[in-house]
Amino acid sequence: MSNSELRSYPRHVVTEAGPVEFRLMGAADEAAVLDFARGLPVHDLLFLPRNITEPKVMTAWVREIERGTITSLLAWKGGKVVGCGTIVRDVHSWSPHVGGIRMVISTDVRGLGVGRALTQETFALALSMGLEKLVAQMTVDQTGAIAIFEGLGFKAEALLRDHVRDRDGRTHDIVVLGHNVAQVRAKLEAYGVPAAVQN
């Protein structure tokens, strides 16, 4: 399934970090995304189910993109990946209407609007995919990321205590945020602006 039919890419935005290009991730991006992942602080990776700094994990990620269970949107600046927004869904589960959203941003561009712009674009992509609910999870100390999601209407749904363990053996709490996308879509349609979401 090609999500690019629903929302066209590449897209360009201007941030405080300068111009950034958003485009869908494919097999050709594997090495660039691996370099990006290896430049992230380890703590930023704790909320992800797998260690994306491992080549075999990256290869499996690309396979899932090709199968259509994962859609990843990359932020490029100066020929490098500086951010990645991912939507994960399982159409064969009991929750085919739910998508998990994951965001990782390079430390080089944090606080400069790249994370906010990528999160908003990933959210718009999820709307165009017809998902009814989105969930996101992160460590409780990632206050900037939590604020961005809350700005989009996400609300805290659960706190998972001692849910992940870092390389030093310390455990960390994970907060789960949820958003009823179907309600957003209904409101947009009521205001007559669905085209703004799907284009």
Distance between the termini: 18 Å
Count of helical stretches: 6
Helix/strand order, N-terminal first: EEHHEEEHEHEEHH
- Unreliable spans are 195-199
The chain-level structural class is alpha+beta
Sheet with the most strands: spatial strand order: 1-2-3-4-5-6-8-7
Main sheet characteristics: 8 strands, mixed
Looking at this structure, what is the CATH superfamily? Gcn5-related N-acetyltransferase (GNAT)
Question: What do you see in this structure?
Answer:
With 199 residues, the protein is of the alpha+beta class. The chain has one domain: Gcn5-related N-acetyltransferase (GNAT) (Aminopeptidase, 3-Layer(aba) Sandwich). The radius of gyration is 16 Å and the shape is globular. The relative contact order is 0.15.
Task: Briefly say what this structure is.
With 199 residues, the chain is α+β, with helices and mostly antiparallel strands. 31% of the residues lie in helices and 33% in strands.
Helix-strand blueprint:
Elements: E1 11-15, E2 18-24, H1 30-38, H2 55-67, E3 70-77, E4 80-88, E5 98-105, H3 114-128, E6 133-139, H4 143-151, E7 155-165, E8 171-180, H5 181-190, H6 194-198
Parallel strand pairs: 5-6
Antiparallel strand pairs: 1-2, 2-3, 3-4, 4-5, 6-8, 7-8
What descriptive keywords fit this protein?
single chain, 199 residues, alpha+beta, Aminopeptidase, eight-stranded mixed sheet, 8 strands, globular
